[in-house]
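SUBJECT: A protein chain and its fold
Encoding: whole-number codes for local backbone shapes
RECORD BEGINS BELOW THIS LINE
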Amino acid sequence: MDFNGLSLDQAPPISAPLRFFLTAPLFGIIAGLILLFSDASALMSRYSLESIAVTHAITIGFFAFVMLGALMQMLPVLAGAKIAKVKLVATYAHLLLSFGLIALLVTFLWQSSLSGFLAFVLLGAGFLLLLIPIAIAIRGVSNVTPTIKSMKNSVLFAFFTLFMGLFLLYSYLLKDFSALHVALANIHSVWAIFGFAGILIIGVSFQVLPMFYVAPKFKNFCKKRVIWLIPIGLLLWAFLNLYDESYALFAKLWITLFFWAYATTVWKKLNERRRPISDVTVWYWRSASIFLTLGAFLWIFDEYFKHEYVVMVAILIGGGFIMSIMMGMLYKIVPFLVWFHLNAAGYMSIPTMNEFINKNLARLQFILFIIALIGFLGSFYAPILLEISSLCFILSMIILEFNIIAPVRVYIKIKKTKPDFDMSSFMA
């Protein structure tokens, strides 16, 4: 593993990112339960309340929680930029976002106006409480690498996505729907997936693939140009979607071209890595490349089918691409955090990073997740598959939660013992 260029001494307290990582699979379980008790026909429409509830349970509860936790961890380590009062910010932002998301799900599932206004306040406050310090920290970075640039772009799209989401929620509560509402809903979802999540994943992979997998570094064009070309495509698509939708396909082609090229590059980098040892995290990266390619092309062809397959596109890109990479990285990041913080505290007799998680359970979790995704796609043609797929998805999330709790339990157990070395003088 290559730690070159990392400011490990700047790492935040382990509790700051871990609280977000540990919560993410719980909202995945909630999403699975909503799917299990929903009608298949309702889920085929992106505008049904059940679909909207599931979408936000995954996008906020899983995607945003993992990404925000990762940003808190990586920004100080990759750029040496500390987030002010990170432990306090993380604690309160986590509480606000957790209760805000629960209120939002109650709003959509039981159509409660009171919980809707509560969700508006809690989610708005929670995201701003965390995004503003992150943005301030990024702005103060002097050595701006391609990964930092991608973080800047990602956080900027996060702000826009947040404000559009709050506007859409407020409009929903007031029952004030218009053509602008539909257009903003489209931009909100596309910018959340490709702008906030997609750009961040691409930028982080510049550092993660060489570090964790000893893969060749990305070429300068990919690192220096693509992270700007994708935002240009997203801005162009939003403009055309608002003012001349007939030409929006050209911007779609622009966006999908670079994401497809990225998927191909990731596959190629994994084939060229210097230590070709395969594990479940490699499986996740490879499956993410496949799902991203399929989802990108389906998003293009969906234009000719009056958006009949947009939910399938969301499953392929949101679940198959983004969720796959996030779960694969949780299997790397959580053991690394536990190992690093124990090692930094003077504990030498600790498991290696590969020993923290049960490999057989991780493989089972991957298989169940892939079965669930394929089943969700098949349920469009055979609704009976939805129940089976939902059960596989729920079980997959339960195993994921167990797998990332396991290293934390080891951390708690070892911290109760005396360190092998007294590191207090070094810390001072």
